[in-house]
Amino acid sequence: KKSKKGGRLSRQDSNKFSQPGKVLHLDGDEDYLELCMKEYKKMGIKAFGYMVKETEQHKHVKRLIQEIRPDILVVTGHDGLLKDSKDLSDINSYRNSLGFMLSIKAAREIQPSLDELVIIAGACQSHYEAFLEAGANFASSPDRILIHALDPVKACIKVALAPINKIVTSEEISKVTICGIRGIGGIETRGKHRGGAPKPR
Q: The pTM is what?
């Protein structure tokens, strides 16, 4: 009996399949978007990428969420502190942070749950606190530094491949991103990977 049971379990294990989280990625830079999509493909993650100007993303995000029904939303592109900006708490001191914040808010109108829809937002020197307050799970840039183009993608991949019963922390995100905790931070977030069985015949 033990031998038969073991055999059944063994066959069942080999018949499982993997389902990472599905991604919707909006990017204000066409070259960066292409780079990001290659990274998703390399990691076996189903991702839908759209090149949309940072200031226009919030106008399209609701429709795209309803069409694609992603597990993870990434809104990124270019950002930065405007010349002579002194008040880092003022959203108007940033090149495109207002656009990203509006996109986060629009997405949360569709799906308010931080577990159902994970949002990763921002770019170089973005208004980190405003994004978290608007409803992002992870955001740039806590220390207002320049981040790598792939940092939001690496954070996204970490969540997409983490099991649904695992909590991903900002410390874990910092280990896979190029700029670390100074570039991207956030809140504890449930993973989006699900296993299943049997494999489709």
A: 0.92
Structure tokens given for 37: 């999509």
List average pLDDT for each run of 10 residues in the chain, which is 201 residues long. Answer: 47 79 98 98 97 98 98 98 93 98 98 97 98 98 97 98 97 97 98 93 78
Q: For the chain, what is the radius of gyration of the CA atoms?
A: 18
Per DSSP, the residues of 38-88 read HHHHHTT--EEEEE--TTTHHHHHHHHHHHH--SEEEEE----BPTT---T
Within the chain, strands assigned E span: 17-19, 23-27, 47-51, 72-76, 118-121, 138-139, 167-168, 185-186, 189-190, 194-196
